[in-house]
Specification:
14 helices, mainly alpha, single chain, 2 strands, 330 residues, MetI-like fold, 2 domains
């Protein structure tokens, strides 16, 4: 088991290194001049040369990439002379627009994105599983058709429609709550949840519909397995058969998509964060793309890739816990 984990960690590190290299090369080969972008409108040749030296753009591409990767693990000194900047571990460079270290910018947005991701994931997982299991146990009934039909409608509604409609109905029309503004959990947990509730619902609606359909099909398939019939023949209670034997085995594909969805969401929900004015990783990514702030774009790309790779690793390890058949087969 330890050897398997070590192999998976090595593969994850190789994937992250490959993503870093490809993204870095793409940004390096872009026709735009990063130093000219950072220099601004009133730029002189001397100032442009200073900025190029500070950014390390006068070095070969391989040397720039080596310095970048080294800085992630050990920090580095960027620039030279009076323009030298000490960038500690983990060094992802600094923003060309604001002059802040990229890691500091990401640290400001991470708690907001985590708050959004955890709440939305809990809603769509619980809601999707509940609808899927109920629909599977009442297959081909009126309740099943109504639930399946509602998931189709919900899945067809895009987030850029659901989000503004939720704001319009609850904030402007019914005036149930004031316009949401992010408040840290440590300051006021109740206000934190209230201000994130609409974003959680908007983000969870689409995913919950997908999870409901997936859990329904998995549950129907699992409940037709021979060991389920054996459990029933032994006289086990219906709840035990459904939850312990049926749902646990049906969770395997759910765990897969949940891990990947949560990992991707932790990398930033650009549309949702923009609609609800949440200054998380997604909003930072959108702003950096608009401002052509390549170090920040590269940092958010690596962060999103890190979460997805780690989520994939955790999902592989959870297979044996969720489904005993996987553990015995390995």
């Amino acid at each position: 088991m330890i050897l398997y984990i070590l192999r998976r960690l090595a593969a994850a590190a190789a994937v992250l290194l490959a993503i870093c290299m490809v993204t870095f090369v793409i940004f390096t080969l872009l026709p735009s001049n990063p130093a000219l972008i950072a220099c601004g409108k009133s730029c002189t040749a001397e100032r442009l040369a200073e900025i190029s030296n500070q950014m390390g753009l006068n070095q070969p591409v391989l040397a720039q990439f080596t310095d970048y990767v080294t800085g992630i693990f050990a920090g580095r000194s960027m620039g030279s002379g009076q323009y030298a900047i000490e960038c500690g571990f983990p060094c992802l460079g600094y923003s060309w627009q604001t002059g802040q270290l990229v890691w500091d910018i990401l640290l400001e947005g991470l708690p907001i994105t985590f708050s959004l991701a955890i709440g939305a994931a809990a809603l769509w997982l619980v809601g999707g599983l509940a609808v899927g299991v109920i629909s599977a146990l009442r297959k081909d009934t009126v309740a099943d058709r109504l639930l399946v039909g509602s998931t189709v409608i919900t899945a067809a509604l895009p987030i850029y429609f659901v989000g503004p409609m939720l704001l319009f109905v609850t904030v402007r029309w019914l005036e149930l709550i004031p316009y949401p503004t992010y408040v840290a959990f440590s300051e006021d947990p109740l206000l934190w949840a209230q201000n994130l509730l609409l974003a959680w619902i908007a983000l969870a609606m689409l995913s919950a519909a997908m999870y409901a359909r997936q859990s329904r099909s998995s549950m129907i398939e699992t409940m037709a397995e021979p060991y389920i019939r054996t459990a029933r023949a032994k006289g086990l209670r219906r709840r035990t058969v459904v939850v312990k034997h049926g749902l646990r085995a049906a969770l395997t594909p759910i765990v897969t998509i949940f891990g990947m969805d949560l990992g991707a969401l932790l990398g930033g929900a650009i549309i949702t964060e923009s609609i609800f004015s949440l200054p998380g990783i997604g909003k930072i990514t959108a702003s950096s793309i608009t401002g052509q702030d390549y170090p920040v774009i590269l940092g958010t790309t690596l962060l999103a890739a890190f979460f997805i790779v780690i989520a994939n690793l955790v999902v592989d390890l959870l297979y044996g816990v969720v489904d005993p058949r996987v553990r015995h087969a390995s």
